[in-house]
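QA checklist item 7 of 12: single-chain prediction sanity check.
[x] sequence parsed
[x] length recorded as 198
[x] structure emitted
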Amino acid sequence: MSGIGKKSRKGNVALKLDMLKAYDRVSWFFTDKVLHKFGFEEHFIYMVWRLVSNVCFSILIDGASYGFFKLIKGIRQGDPLSLALFVIGAEVLSRSLNSLNSHFGFVGFRVPRGCPPMTHLAFADNVLIFANGSSFSLKNIMQVMMLYQKSFGRLVNTQKCGYLVHPSTSPTHRMVIERLTGFSRQHFPLWYEVDDDY
């Protein structure tokens, strides 16, 4: 990330988000709306709905099963369809982050001349968001993240999240970033764990 030290007002910052794969929290309502918005055919959406919602669970007490109950949200872990729905949900986050560049006053990650603008990189369970370190830009990013978590049900593991800045960034500005994001400072190099599900 050679651009992290690129001169700009408030400097560049990279936010490293650790996303929890909380299968039991995925909102069916949100997933249905997204599939419609992305233009999937009605019969396909209905088929997905039937596969996701046609699950019953029972409770084992002292080795005996009691009753059945249906879910109102969540998807099955290990189901290939679940991974596809996670990817579709991640696309919503991706489009939301890209749209920030058109917001008045939002300043993106400053890159060398001739390079395309960069907003984020998404991995299996991690997202790297590149932005300017201004309060306005960081507040906008955090609003997008809060809305995404609330809508989709996928949560950010704040204990594993962090931010990266150039070593010359002032302690005062680092405190502002920490206050706005709730993340602690991390250092290079970044290491990623590969999940067996992917």
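[x] summary fact logged: The chain has a mean pLDDT of 82.
[ ] second reviewer sign-off
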